[in-house]
Each structure stands twice: as C-alpha cells, then as structure tokens.
C-alpha cells in the first residue's frame, strides 16, 4: 500500500516503528513522515487485523517529535475512528485494502500540506 497525494502518485515517506505504550492489547500508534510538506488527498493501504483507525496530521515537525499521543497541540484529525473490519472478532475482512479520499478526510482544507501523519490503531 502507499500514501497517495493529490497528484495520485506515491510520495516519498518514512514509516516509523509502531509504538504501544503498554503491553498489548493497547492503542498502538505509528508515524509516517514526509521529507517535505505534502498535500494528502487520498490514503490507501492494506489492513492487517485492525478494527478501526484514527489519523491525525501535522504541519509542525516539533509536534511530530513529541511522542505524547494525548497532546493534540499542532495536530488536526483528518480521519476519525474509520472502521476497517466488519467484525473485529472475525478474520473475514481483516486484510482488505482500504482507500480514504476527499469525501472521507476532514480537518484539512485539501490544500494544507503536512509533514507527518500519526495513525492510531484500535
């Protein structure tokens, strides 16, 4: 899967290690960083046993360095609790591909360029 910008092509990005503040089960987070500010109009990926996700975006590299996921300063939620599996207790839809576009992504104007995303896995 890839993170797809408004031009419809995959942009350079770095996916950092997933973080879980306690023993599993927990709400894990994973950051995606861009080398330069990037407009995000579509996000596409293959799921791997995650029931739902929230995605926050930032234009502030300092906010990206902070690992305190409760501190929302500098972050905007662009996708909130999007359901990825029909039933989290069944494997039937656990590895489907998902694509979220302009009708799904909120919080940014569509013209906003971000330096990073933080994904919350539920």
TrEMBL record:
It comes from Hemiselmis andersenii (Cryptophyte alga). This is Uncharacterized protein. One of its GO terms (cellular component) is nucleoplasm.
């Amino acid at each position: 899967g890839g993170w797809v910008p408004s031009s419809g092509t995959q942009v350079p990005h770095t996916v950092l290690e997933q973080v879980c503040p306690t023993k599993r089960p927990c709400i894990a987070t994973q950051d995606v960083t861009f080398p330069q500010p990037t407009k995000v109009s579509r996000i596409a990926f293959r799921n791997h046993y995650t029931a739902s996700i929230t995605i926050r975006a930032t234009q502030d590299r300092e906010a990206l360095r902070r690992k305190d996921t409760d501190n929302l300063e500098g972050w905007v939620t662009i996708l909130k609790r999007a359901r990825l599996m029909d039933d989290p207790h069944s494997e039937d839809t656990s590895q489907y591909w998902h694509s979220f576009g302009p009708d799904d992504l909120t919080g940014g104007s569509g013209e906003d360029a971000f330096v990073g995303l933080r994904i919350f896995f539920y």
